[in-house]
Design a protein that fits this description.
Length: about 350
Amino acid sequence: MTNPVPGPGDPPGSREASNELEQAPGGPPLPAESSGTRSFGLFRFTFDGRTAPGLFVVGWLAAVIGSLGAFVGLLAGSSTAGAVLFVVGLAVLLPGLLLLGGSQALERRASGLAYAGPSPVLVFAATIVGLYLVVVAVVTPLHLAGARLEGPVLSLLGVILQAVAVIGLIRILVVGPGALSWSEMGLRGSLPAVVRELAAGAVLGLPVVVVTAAVVWALVSVVGSIPESPLPPTGTGAGLAINLLAGAVIAPIYEELLFRGFATTAWARVVPARTAIIRTAVLFALAHVLTQGGGSFQEAAGLAIVGAGSRLPVALALGWLFLRRRSLWAAIGLHAAFNGFLLVIAEASLRG
């Protein structure tokens, strides 16, 4: 598979440019898996030949017990016992996911795969669980102290906690074991180079907004549901400033680190680059509708379809740009501009 778009500094039609999208930032050409290697996946329940059977067994036990505890806690409703059981279940589940990630990394390294780290899906699941635990650890004392957080301030706190969970778990599961470095995930370059990459991504923000608007219009025309913005307009200058800080500064950094820097880089080492872009785009879209709800199943499904579908254009553009320029800063620039335009447009619509 070749890429018809030449890379920066490559003459048109060059062999290097034609294969640019087939190589992740800092990674080897694809396909990377060699024949004859044995890979023990998380769902292959055997001990024979495993590098770390203990991690595999303990990880699965903790994951199953924690998941069951959290599920029973949810079924208990809004009771205190249910809330405690839910949190305890998550507290058991998270170590289980970490151990499974370590087991997966060791098996892949022993098999000689080009990416010897945990699956992006497993890391994503760990970040969701970790986020809930971080929120409980931070918000519960604030609530007990009588602090009232609402509106843009609460949204900003939520975004900050998400950033802490994502960066911390990528450090533990990916960078710490040596599966990928920060540089291999696109976080490199001098200050002038970073500014250039941010600007190169930002200039694509408005065109992607236009394409997204067309997609949203088409989906809403068919489904008839319009999801609420995660950062709704406030009608005040201070509220807009806080929303821009949360949605156009902090969120693009940790989301791009998770979905493009980590997930796209990891997948692009073992599958064709276009497949990696599509996988990450789907995961990105699904991640943004996990908390969507509605008064009925039909309404919730409609909101999820519009919410996920409206994020696919920007997700695909971000993946292409990331592998095209091999810089996470370019993806962050596009993501920040895209979110910033939407926030300003929503605020102007409210005031208008």
